[in-house]
Design a protein that fits this description.
Blueprint lengths: L2 H15 L8 E7 L12 H9 L3 H13 L1 E5 L4 E2 L7 H5 L4 E2 L8 E2 L20 H16 L4 E2 L7 H9 L1 H10 L1 H12 L2 H11 L2 H4 L1 E2 L5 E2 L4 E4 L9 H18 L2 E7 L7 H5 L6 E5 L11 H9 L3 E4 L4 H7 L8 E6 L3 H14 L1
Parallel strand pairs: 1-13, 3-6, 9-10, 10-11, 11-12, 12-13
Antiparallel strand pairs: 1-2, 4-5, 7-8
Helix pairs in contact: 5-9, 6-7, 6-8, 7-8, 8-11, 14-15
Length: 357
């Protein structure tokens, strides 16, 4: 990364987390570089998982580097690599087996807990365990990066998401009614593993030196940052969420210096007020869900989130939509991620938005 431009980006990100506005909301805009043949890096959960499991690091890293070298990172965009074993990797760190296949974009685990009574929460730190493999990959990638890109924080589907993967979501729903004491016991033990797993990834990715970024690419120049979530919450009532989900989310947010909450699906909106009441959550990423209108059509909800003092990471507006509608929202804590067709379009977007402030 160009050090002068990186220092400029850092100033914008520091202002973002401090709820200050320099001259416009943050815009992370990427585009194919001019005068080069653009190379598209193809990566999904399965490709990343197989590279990690088979220790085929260089194939993936060289592909990413080639793409990065032909990509323009405009505004506050930061080049980063997301290493993952898939959405259920946290459960795999606790003993579940991952299924990864080149024919699929994602990975999964099959539920492996028949009964919570005899289940003991224990991180598998053994040599060549999933956790050890991802630690090795992240450490290798951080050295390979050599300051040119950042290795992102893991996508940690912890708390009730981990229990859902271990037990199966339908069975876990029944358990909340049939044996809530057992769920509480296991959940409390899973919650105790969060800081240890986070610290492993933070150290392996050399994030104290580089800063932190998540798969939702909001960059934190210093301190501990992660994207947090509980996708399982869409399946339960607000009463059950307040009992099992909200305390775990608050605990994770309190441990981190900054965080984004990944809010996935309108089915989870019954918990919105409880999520917004967690003071330690900085930013909300609203994902309406498959088949739903895009976020630009949820303006009342976006304004409600901002009124509660939360920032917004918006990922699905076009360049023109950003230019035309960004002033409908407060610029404080507002960040857009967008792909432009060219460097010129990317630069013009930044100029036009600044001029309209």
């Amino acid at each position: 990364m160009n050090i002068n431009d990186f220092d400029r980006k850092k100033r914008y990100w520091y202002a973002f987390w401090n709820k200050e506005v320099l001259d416009r909301p943050l815009i992370c805009v990427t585009a194919p570089k001019d005068d080069v043949t653009y190379y598209q890096h193809i990566q999904n959960d399965s490709i990343s998982a197989l590279a990690c499991i088979n220790k085929d690091y260089d194939t993936l890293l060289n592909s990413f580097k080639k793409s990065m070298d032909t990509t323009y990172y405009g505004g506050e965009a930061i080049p980063y690599l997301n290493i993952t074993l898939g959405p259920d990797q946290y459960a795999a760190f606790l003993g579940a087996q991952i299924s990864a296949n080149k024919e699929h974009d994602t990975t999964w685990v099959n539920s492996c807990v028949d009964d919570w009574v005899d289940f003991e929460v224990k991180i598998d730190w053994s040599k060549d365990s999933y956790l050890d493999k991802i630690k090795q990959f992240m450490t290798y990638a951080a050295k390979f990066a050599n300051g040119e890109f950042i290795v992102s924080m893991l996508d940690l589907h912890s708390n009730m998401d981990a229990l859902s993967a271990l037990r199966g979501p339908q069975n876990l729903c029944f358990d909340l009614i049939d044996c809530p004491e057992d769920v509480h016991r296991v959940l409390n033990d899973v919650r105790k593993t969060y800081q240890e797993i986070f610290e492993m990834a933070y150290d392996a990715g050399d994030m104290e030196k580089t800063g932190s970024i998540g798969w939702a690419p909001t960059y934190c120049p210093s301190g501990k940052f992660a994207v947090i979530q509980c996708d399982f919450s869409c399946m339960i009532s607000p009463t059950h969420a307040r009992e099992f989900v909200i305390p775990a989310i608050k605990e994770e947010a309190s441990f981190l210096d900054h965080c984004v909450y990944h809010y996935d699906g309108k089915e989870a909106l019954g918990h919105l007020d409880d999520i917004l009441a967690i003071e330690e959550i900085d930013v909300i990423q609203w994902v309406p869900g498959d088949g739903q209108p895009r976020t630009i059509e949820w303006m009342d909800l976006l304004k409600k989130i901002q009124k509660a003092g939360k920032g917004l990471w918006i990922y699905d507006w076009t360049c023109q939509e950003i230019e035309d509608h960004f002033k409908e929202l407060s610029p404080i804590g507002l960040v857009f991620s967008v792909v432009a067709a060219s460097q010129d379009e990317a630069d013009q977007l930044l100029i036009n938005v600044a001029n309209k402030m």
